[in-house]
Every structure is written in structure tokens, then in C-alpha cells.
Amino acid sequence: MGEPMHKVLAPVSGTYVPIEDVADPVFAQKMMGDGFAVTPDSDVVVAPVSGEVTARYPTGHAYGLRADDGLELMVHVGIDTVEAGGDGFLPTAEKGQRVSAGDALVTFDRGLLAERGFDTSVIVVLLSVPEGSRVQKYAAAGEPMEAGRSVAAEY
User: ∠124-7-3 over CA atoms, to 5°?
Assistant: First the structure.
């Protein structure tokens, strides 16, 4: 292979969770694609790659990104949080915006969402890996993550 590995960074500070352990079968069964989650201990969600914001859900709970190398991914804040109708979300990134890994996408109120019964896991789904690439490595379950700095996956 010999190609340098591309990295997907943690979207939020907290604890790494394998996607199979996410409390939503759509994610856990990889129906949308492989990926990972982070149980957050921070309220700021950042871009895990440098590239373009290709989608922002109106409620601010989900974002699509296309990395400079073609990787397409989704950052989804919480489980069933679309039902919050945008309450507890303060988006900072817009569709079409260029972001660098570590740039803020959204600030969310973990306390408010947890109070309302939502799981606040931040999930990253790799929707489309560039041709000729595959995920080589994920972080270990329980590994501490620092937003925009810790490597959560390599491909």
C-alpha cells in the first residue's frame, strides 16, 4: 500500500465508543455505513476532517461533510435528537462552508438534551470512503478523545 493514512479526528471530547455499541440499531447495525461514536464530556462538536459542509439539518443536529480527499461522512449529534426541534443546538457551520478539522460545527446543550431523555452520543458515519481506500484502524473502546485532536479512525 505505502499510501499515507488519512485521519478522521474526534468530533467532540469524551470517550470513544465502537459504532456497534451505539444505542440506535440504525447506527449499530451499520445501515448507513461504518463509523464510531464519542460519549461527550464537552458541548462543542467540531469537524473531524478538513473539507466542505455538504449538508446541515435544519435543527442543527446533523451535518454532512466531504473531505478534501473525497471521504464523505455524517456527524450526528445525539440519538433521536431531531425530535428536540432544534432546542439545545446552536449551529456555527453552514452548508457550503469550507472547514478545517477542528473547526466548530455546532454547540449543543448536553444537560438540556439529557434532561429530556436523549442519548447525547456524537456519531460519525463514514458514508463513502475514497476509491481504493478502506478503514484500516479505529480507536479502542473507552479511549479518551480530544475534539479535533485525537485520531478516531484511519483509512
Answer: 135
Whole-number Å distance between alpha carbons of 57 and 26 = 18
Per-residue pLDDT of the chain (155 residues; tens, 9 = 90+): 445 589 999 999 999 999 999 999 999 999 999 999 999 999 999 999 999 999 999 999 999 999 999 999 999 999 999 999 999 999 999 999 999 999 999 999 999 999 999 999 999 999 998 888 888 889 999 999 999 999 999 98
Asked about 61 being catalytic, the answer comes back as: no
State the virtual CA torsion across 117, 49, 138, 80 in degrees, nearest 10.
20
Query: From CA 9, how far away is CA 82, in angstroms rounded?
Result: 24
Sheet strands (E) in 26-143: 34-40, 44-46, 51-56, 62-67, 72-79, 89-91, 98-99, 104-108, 119-128, 137-138
Query: Helices in 44-121 by DSSP H: which ranges?
Result: 110-115
- Give the span between the Cα atoms of 154 and 134, in whole angstroms: 9
| 107 C-beta neighbours (distance < 10 Å), count | 16
pTM for the predicted model, two decimal places: 0.95
**Catalytically annotated residue among 76, 81, 122, 125:** 76
